[in-house]
Design goal:
Chain lengths: 254, 362
């Protein structure tokens, strides 16, 4: 059964340089995500990945279309939706002067649930940092901590926006293991990335977005056989990166 | 009345503030320095350093010289013209008086000469006036004439109000404004810039919980900071508060609420840290000078007085001063009370209209 259903999602922005003009950052995107799945939204910068996530999280208005999470309409019942999702944003800064333990308790209070900081930090392998402040953490530790904050309400769905961007290979692997471990307990995970390897090794299914549209959606393996067999010279060595480039073109994106 | 989450969040904001020692010290620095400085001088003008060159041996010249030296407005150095002239040039003296050799009461040629640095216009008038007075006294004495008029000053409210007593309520009102606007306005912009508001927004917290907890925490912070300043003023500078402390603290809470709401408006409109500081400065800086913090409002130009009287800081300063200096209660201050209520309503309505979670967070 689908836990997330998205139908013809549209986000329109007005073009700043033209008074009349507008463009759709998200342009009629539809997909559904099964319970317990790890779903990756893959795409170049500016493809509309983050905007799509933000509409599901209630951070951005849905201009057209509909989105349902666990049977709840995101537009009509945003507060009920917020209670069952966990969110990790791209920017993850916190109030100054508070320790990780105090921040975890704060987030628990925002959801009105009791949390034991030690247990949660142990889950993301940061127990020794209970009394440290976020400013003292490394990039990888910071990402793991923000996942810990997203777990305080024991969410049914976890949204991760580019969780491994800027991490070194060790930290990246470490975070992948954490995501896989969380998924083992039936948690549905939706993540955005432009890391091909991540999409390929982590995700059960991938949706590729470009210019606000979902241009392909399938399991990594199916996508590879479908798109990466071209060029035929090296079909066996094709990977998701070939798929990505075949679909979105080779031009530079800024 | 308040929910658990509001209390917890308020406690968190309070903890954040208490751990930020630098800003605690900075917010107390300004009022302490001002009050300290004015408590030493008693608000009176420092004496002018003037030089006196006496080229005459006459009785009149002697009398004049003695009278000038005993005037508390002057700090007299006697010497020769050459030394004192150079002292005037390098700023040691504000003026040099030269008594000519033939200084006699009835002689026309016996004019006093006054050497001045004309850039010191502020002091020029006082010096001239005082010299004129001294000359007049000598003249009367020598001719045996009694003065026709004597001016006696008396405070109508029969209290001994020093400048620092007048200043304290103004400084407190200014502190209320700054601490409140910084607490809501500047903090919100900072939290937004760092994505903290966005992170809060994806949790089920309601905007009103966030606003109420900031207001609660800030009110406590303002009360703490004001109490420290007030205790310093009462115990070390011996400032007298004539009205009741209860009224004073109610006034502090009301004033703080107005500026917290105005801060929320600023924080919602301004998008960057730079612009909120600029807009905040535009709101706070002119009020510091116009609203009667340092001088009575009646000393301001007539033409802008109607505007001055409706400024929020003016209203709070008047209320604070009424309680602290004149011992008034709220019942005695109808106009101030109307002003306070009007500003509370205006700022609250504006704040709730402008502070929209989704827009402010993004």
């Amino acid at each position: 059964m689908s836990i997330i259903k998205v139908k013809n999602l549209v986000k329109t922005y007005r073009l700043p340089e033209k008074i009349e003009g507008s463009f759709n950052a998200v342009d009629g995107v539809s997909f559904s995500i099964e319970r317990g799945e790890i779903y990756g939204i893959l795409g170049p910068n500016g493809a509309g990945k983050t905007t799509t996530l933000e509409m599901l999280e209630g951070l951005n208005d849905i201009d057209a279309g509909a989105a349902y999470i666990d049977g709840l309409s995101v537009m009509d019942e945003p507060y009920k939706v917020k209670k069952i999702i966990g969110v990790q944003l791209q920017a993850n800064e916190y109030f100054d002067g508070l320790t990780l333990g105090e921040l975890i308790i704060l987030f628990g209070n925002l959801y009105q649930v009791k949390v034991i900081p030690d247990k949660l930090l142990e889950r993301v392998n940061l127990l020794d940092k209970l009394h440290a402040k976020p400013a003292d953490l490394s990039g990888g530790q910071n990402q793991r901590f923000s996942i810990a904050c997203a777990l305080v309400n024991d969410p049914k769905i976890l949204f991760l926006d580019e969780p491994t961007t800027g991490l070194d290979p060790q930290a990246k692997r470490n975070l992948w293991n954490l995501v896989l471990e969380l998924n083992r307990s039936e948690m549905t995970i939706v993540l955005t990335t432009h890391n091909m390897e991540e999409a390929e090794t982590l995700c059960h299914r991938i949706g590729i977005m470009d210019k606000g549209k979902l241009i392909a959606e399938d399991t990594p393996q199916n996508l590879i056989t479908q798109y990466a067999s071209d060029p035929p010279v090296a079909p066996l060595h094709g990977n998701i990166e070939d798929v990505f480039l075949a679909l979105t073109g080779h031009g530079l994106r800024d | 009345m308040f929910s658990k989450i509001q209390f917890h969040l308020a406690k968190v904001f309070l903890k954040i503030f208490l751990r930020d020692r630098q800003s605690i010290i900075f917010s107390l620095f300004f009022p302490f320095v001002f009050m300290g400085a004015f408590s030493f001088t008693g608000g009176e003008v420092d004496p002018f350093n003037i030089g006196l060159v006496n080229n005459s041996t006459s009785i009149v010249a002697k009398n004049f010289s003695e009278l000038i030296s005993s005037d508390s407005l002057f700090n007299v150095t006697k010497g020769n013209e050459k030394d004192l002239r150079s002292g005037l040039i390098n700023g040691e003296q504000s003026a040099v008086i030269i008594i000519p050799k033939d200084f006699q009461l009835n002689s026309i040629s016996g004019d006093l000469r006054l050497l001045l640095d004309k850039s010191q216009i502020r002091q020029l008038r006082s010096i001239k006036e005082s010299l004129g007075q001294s000359l007049l006294s000598i003249e009367r004495e020598l001719r045996g004439v009694e003065p026709m008029f004597v001016l006696q000053t008396e405070d109508v409210k029969a209290r001994s109000l020093r400048y620092v007593d007048f200043l304290l309520p103004g400084i407190l009102a200014f502190m209320i404004m700054n601490l409140s606007i910084a607490g809501s306005g500047y903090n919100i912009v900072e939290y937004r810039r760092r994505g903290i508001l966005k992170r809060l927004f994806v949790t089920p917290i309601q905007p009103k919980d966030f606003i109420i907890s900031i207001v609660l925490a800030r009110l406590l912070i303002v009360i703490m900071q004001i109490s420290v300043t007030l205790s310093f003023a009462i115990f070390f500078i011996d400032v007298k508060i004539l009205g009741s402390f209860l009224s004073l603290y109610i006034m502090i809470i009301l004033g703080s609420s107005i500026f917290l709401c105005l801060g929320f408006c600023l924080g919602s409109i301004a998008k960057t840290q730079e612009s909120v500081r600029a807009v905040g400065g535009l709101v706070t800086f002119p009020q510091l000078f116009l609203s009667g913090v340092f001088f009575p409002i009646s000393s301001m130009p007539e033409i802008i007085q109607p505007i001055i009287h409706i400024l929020p800081l003016t209203v709070v300063v008047k209320g604070m001063r009424g309680i602290a200096n004149d011992g008034l209660s709220f019942a005695d201050m109808n106009i101030v009370l109307i002003g306070i209520v009007a500003w509370l309503v205006i700022s609250f309505v504006l704040a709730t209209k402008l502070f929209v979670w989704k827009k402010v967070a993004n």
